Amino acid sequence: MFYTFSRRNQPPIYPTASDSEIESQNSEVLIPEWESSKVKSMLDTSYQLKSLLMFGAYYHQKKDGFESVVIEHLRLNGAYWGLTTLDILGKLDAVDKDEVVSWIMECQDESGGFGGNIGHDPHVLFTLSAIQILALFDKIDVLDVEKLDVANLQNEDGSFAGDMWGEIDTRFSYVAICSLALLHRLDKINVEKAVKYIVSCKNLDGGFGCTPGAESHAGQIFCCVGALAITGSLHYVDKDLLGWWLCERQVKSGGLNGRPEKLPDVGSLILFLIIIDRVHWIDKGKLVNFILDCQDKENGGISDRPDDAVDVFHTYFGIAGLSLLEYQGLKAIDPAYALPVEVVNKIFLAK
C-alpha cells in the first residue's frame, strides 16, 4: 500500500502499513486563483537572477573574507540549500556542475563520510548534503557507496550518532535514513529499531523531540515524520493530533513558529504538513504572503522573518515552501527527501 500526494508532478510513493492510513489522497493543495486579493504580488520578476547571485556569492566568495571564515565549517550544507533553491527555480544550469562535483568529492574523508568543507571532520549531516547535491546533478554514481559509514552510526537501541563522538539526535536518524534510502541501502540498518526509537521520541501533543522526553519542536518533527514516511511507518503518527499542534503554530502575520510563544519563522513546518496531509488546516494564502514579505527585493534572498537579513538557509525553505504551496513557476519538491520531485523520481523509478 502507498502514501501519496495530489500534486502537479507526482512525487514518489511512501509505503505504509494499510489502506486505512491513506487519507485524503485527492485533496488539492493548490491555492485557488493566485490572482485573488488573498495573495500579494508574485516573486520579484528579477528574483531568480538575484537568487543566483546570492548563491554565487556564497559559494565563490573570497576565502579570506569574514563571511567565508564564519561559514567555512558548514559550506557543504550551504551548497545544498543554494543549489536546491536554484533547481526549484529552474536555474541549476547556471553553475558549473563539474566544478561543484569535484569540490564535493574533496570534502570526503578517508573514513567515507563527508565534512562540511575540505579538510573538516566528517558528520552525517554533511554526508546527506553531499548525496543530495550529487543527486541534483545525477552524479550519485561517482560515490563508492560501500565506503560510506552511515550504517555504522546506528546504535543498539536504533538511534543514530552524528559522528564518531556519539551525539544522539532524531535529526541524525532522519539524515541517516534519507541518505541510505537515496543510495538504495536501507537494508544495511535495522529499520525496525530505527523506527521504534523515533516513535519513542513522540510526545503527548503528537510532536517529536530530539530524544525521548524532549520538547516537541518543528525541526525535530520534520525529521521524525520524514524518516517515518521514508520507512513506510506513517501509521505511527497521530495525524489529527499532530496536525492540530502544527496549525496552532500559525500566527496573525501568516507565518509559522517552531514552538509555542516563539516568533514566526520561514522554516520546515510546511514540509510535514504536506506529508501528513493537513496543509488545508492553515491559511495558505497568508503563509504565502508571509514568505513573500521576507524577500529582499533589492539584493535577493529570503530571511527568517520580514526586515531581517537574508541567508541561504531561509531562502531554501522559503522557496521550498512556495513550491509545496503550488506557487506558479516553481518545480515541485518532495517533502520527505527535500529534493525536487523529478530528481527523486529519477532515483527510485529508474531502478
TrEMBL record:
Free-text cofactor note: Binds 1 zinc ion per subunit.
Protein name (database record): Geranylgeranyl transferase type-2 subunit beta
Organism: Penstemon davidsonii
Role, per record: Catalyzes the transfer of a geranylgeranyl moiety from geranylgeranyl diphosphate to both cysteines of proteins with the C-terminal sequence -XXCC, -XCXC and -CCXX.
Sequence ranges assigned to domain Prenyltransferase alpha-alpha toroid in this UniProt record: 68-338
Cofactor: Zn(2+)
Listed EC numbers: 2.5.1.60
UniProt family annotation: Belongs to the protein prenyltransferase subunit beta family.
InterPro entries assigned: PGGT1B-like, Prenyltrans, Ptb1, Terpenoid_cyclase/PrenylTrfase
Record field: catalytic activity: geranylgeranyl diphosphate + L-cysteinyl-[protein] = S-geranylgeranyl-L-cysteinyl-[protein] + diphosphate
Pfam families membership: Prenyltrans
Keywords, sorted A to Z: Metal-binding, Prenyltransferase, Repeat, Transferase, Zinc
